[in-house]
């Protein structure tokens, strides 16, 4: 599968709300493969949302297995129509984004989340996630609603250019 171009801020497509995934099967699995390959081709990518490659669908890929940051790790996740059902606590952490290259900033997120989603067969699942993995899932779900991490930084003074 080809590595797709990642849309960059200020592309207006990053600000659109994504549509629900209604059809499951081979075409969705092919899109997930493209998302995963595109994420891995990016620098430090641990998550990606379909809108970041111009696909207006509520679909994300998350993989925190290689991260050294503490979290309850579920491995490689393919999540269609994800929704955060419950949140607990708050944590401030540094975030970056494949669609906002060269910038990082401090963003508040829930420490623990319970998230429901459809798997690639269309079966509804639910997991509890904590720490870094919870942060990544929340970041990617924001993309589905047209929200970038720069919208959530505690202060523009925390935005720093990566070297």
Structure, explained:
The chain is an alpha+beta fold. It has a single domain, classed as Peptide deformylase (Peptide Deformylase, Alpha-Beta Complex). Helix content is 18%, strand content 33%. It has helices at 26-41, 131-144, and strands at residues 47-49, 59-63, 76-88, 91-97, 100-109, 112-118, 124-130, 160-161. The strands form two sheets. It has a five-stranded antiparallel sheet with strand order 1-2-3-6-7, with helices on both faces. Strands 4-5-8 form a three-stranded antiparallel sheet. The longest helix is centred in the first third of the chain and has 16 residues, at 26-41. The model has no long low-confidence stretch (mean pLDDT 93).
Topology at a glance:
Blueprint: H1 26-41, E1 47-49, E2 59-63, E3 76-88, E4 91-97, E5 100-109, E6 112-118, E7 124-130, H2 131-144, E8 160-161
Antiparallel strand pairs: 1-2, 2-3, 3-6, 4-5, 5-8, 6-7
In short:
By secondary structure, the protein is an alpha+beta fold. The protein has helices spanning 26-41, 131-144, and strands at residues 47-49, 59-63, 76-88, 91-97, 100-109, 112-118, 124-130, 160-161.
């Amino acid at each position: 599968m080809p590595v797709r171009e990642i849309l960059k801020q200020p592309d207006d497509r990053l600000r659109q709300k994504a549509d629900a995934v209604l059809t499951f099967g081979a075409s969705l699995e092919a899109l997930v493969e493209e998302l995963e390959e595109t994420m891995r081709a990016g620098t430090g990518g641990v998550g990606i949302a379909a809108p970041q490659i111009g696909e207006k669908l509520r679909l994300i890929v998350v993989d925190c297995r290689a991260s050294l940051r503490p979290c309850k790790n579920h491995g490689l996740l393919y999540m269609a129509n994800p929704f955060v059902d419950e949140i607990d606590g708050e944590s401030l952490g540094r975030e970056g984004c494949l669609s906002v290259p060269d910038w990082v900033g401090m963003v508040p997120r829930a420490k623990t989340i319970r998230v429901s989603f459809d798997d690639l067969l269309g079966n509804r699942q639910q997991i509890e996630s904590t720490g870094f993995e919870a942060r990544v899932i929340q970041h990617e779900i924001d993309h589905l609603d047209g929200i970038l991490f720069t919208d959530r930084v505690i202060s523009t003074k925390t935005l720093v250019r990566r070297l």
